[in-house]
Amino acid sequence: MFSALSAALLGFLLGLRHATDADHVVAVTAIVARERTLKRAAWIGVLWGIGHTITVFTVGGAIIAFRLVIPPRLGLALEFGVAIMLIVLGFSNLRTDAPVHAHGHTHEFDSRRPLLIGTVHGLAGSAAVAILVLTAIPQTAWALAYLLVFGIGTIAGMMLVTVLIAAPAMYASERVAKLHGGIRLAAGALSLAFGLLLAREIIVGGGLLSAAPTWSPK
Description:
The protein has 218 residues and is an all-alpha fold. The protein has helices at 2-18, 22-32, 38-66, 72-95, 112-136, 140-175, 179-205. The chain has one domain (19-205). It is built from 7 helices and no strands. Helix 4 (72-95) packs antiparallel against helix 7.
């Protein structure tokens, strides 16, 4: 009983930490920069975490259950998808500005966006998570349970991250109206730059387009 509880607690804590990975934080920052309420910011984190968890549990679960091996080129391609998504998010923030009500919130909230972005991130990270879990927990049922607890921790962690990111920006923008637009542009520039650097690392460092790509799940 103690070992099972310890494994569950560890999975939850690692899920919390996983939410703070640089590419995750950059992505949600670009999305949250458009919002002006903490409730919506928190909901974005929850949706991102749900999308991430669904993918990690589905793909990672398949890797664990069937002992699948991800080819290096496929692993790099999944990570390259994250880079492209960050670039698109950056351009979106730099080129457009959602209309805002006088009461300080946008006209509509598209829940599909953070859910989709979380799903893409989950695809890129599912292999690494599954391999780590399989190494520590060889029993399939326990490994799948661990993945689920890890996902719950990721959801909680991302909700906390989005609130921590959004709160200072919202507090400042309420006092200086023009600051909100600046925050959105800064978040867009950060997402674009990070996405370009990540894409370069995958193509040049990992050899995505080469004859012999190299990839280590992370």
